[in-house]
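Deviations from the work plan: none for this task. Representative record:
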Amino acid sequence: MKARVYVTLKPSVFDPQGHVVAEALVTLGYQDVKDVRQGKFFEVELADADPATAKARVTEMADKLLANPVIESYRVEVLQ
Amino acid sequence: MKFAVVVFPGSNSDYDAFYAASHVVGEQAELVWHKDTDLKGADAVILPGGFAHGDYLRTGAIARFSPIMAAVKSFADRGGPVLGICNGFQVLLEAGLLPGAMVRNDRIKFVSKLVPIRVEQTDTPFTAACFSKQMLSLPIAHGEGNYYAPPDQLDEIEKNRQVIFRYASPSGELGAEWNPNGSLNSIAGICNRQRNVVGLMPHPERASELALGSADGRVVLASVVKAIAAQVPSPKSQVPV
């Protein structure tokens, strides 16, 4: 089964890369862009388990390694 | 005394640190591969600059899994002096040996230049030979040196006098124009609560001889020589045999 992990900088942490991407989009003519936050995306393939157990396992992985909880927050999705 | 310089795949300041410790400061030094599990009887450990493990995932994130890091951690726990320079500082943050984290420089650019650094505290093994508010001219070379800690943690770091180096003007004033990367409180280097583990983004080893543009960095390694000489017994003698 697969799980997806989305990691982004916490709202309180300035994201210089996202800021530059937002400016670039505005330069391209997308004047409606107000802000961009850049992040990371992980697809984790793991042995079959019930979705609740899988979600707990992957959340632990995100907390211990995939994200740095000092600066980043994460969201875990388990695919059926 | 003896320095151990840890070599990760992707370290690039390992020989600079080795050279500064052995040829400039004139002490014994040994390069220790990251897969080794002991520190070869060293009295002080340097985690050098570079891009350990290609900076995959996050800077310093994978290096904490290198086998040598268990030995570094137990050495630090026994009070042994550990210095993380640039990427070595990032490794110490990711390994939880120092508080906080690094994010991209606020102006995105990789910054490589000599900058004025103010010494904030002299009661660490790596600033013992400095005087308070001493100004050092040291090179920085990083893209991700923007120090961050959540507000409560930052308060605690300041309260405990754990900020060891700050970016400042040549005469020692703080200000955004002297902060090259957006670090909170102009932080260039910090120590742990026990004060034996120090991390800094500037490269003292690359400023250890006048031919390099500055010899100000020499005092950082000279400090640990002084600190070790003053300390009896040394941490390594406490290693169980």
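DSSP finds two helices and three strands in chain A.
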